[in-house]
Write a structure and sequence with these properties.
Blueprint (H helix, E strand, L loop, with lengths): L8 E5 L5 E12 L2 E8 L11 E9 L2 E5 L4 H18 L1
Antiparallel strand pairs: 1-2, 2-3, 3-4, 4-5
Length: about 90
């Protein structure tokens, strides 16, 4: 028997104004900045092809704001840190 953890669902709006429902998969910290790994909440949970979304987390008061990562170097740095961590922790 496997334990299933209920992931928090977040609703946000993409660049084209479309509403997206995303599940918070994990939060990682790279160079003292928090980043959220998110999955499309409407995708089939068993679908191994689900696309992972990476967004920067910014604290505003008591709330967190999800920001797109526009800088390719920042995106590459965070992506590599996630890959390296996964390889180390297998």
């Amino acid at each position: 028997m496997t334990d299933e953890v209920e992931m928090e669902v977040i609703t946000t709006v993409d660049e084209e104004g479309n509403e997206l429902r995303l599940k918070l998969y994990d939060i990682v910290v790279v160079d003292d900045t928090e980043y959220a790994l998110l999955l499309n909440a409407d995708d089939d949970e068993d679908d191994e092809e689900s696309e992972l979304v990476l967004m920067r987390l910014k604290k505003e008061g008591e709330d967190y704001v999800f920001e797109s990562i526009e800088d390719q170097d920042e995106f590459d740095l965070v992506s590599q840190a996630i890959i390296d961590d996964a390889a180390e922790n297998g």
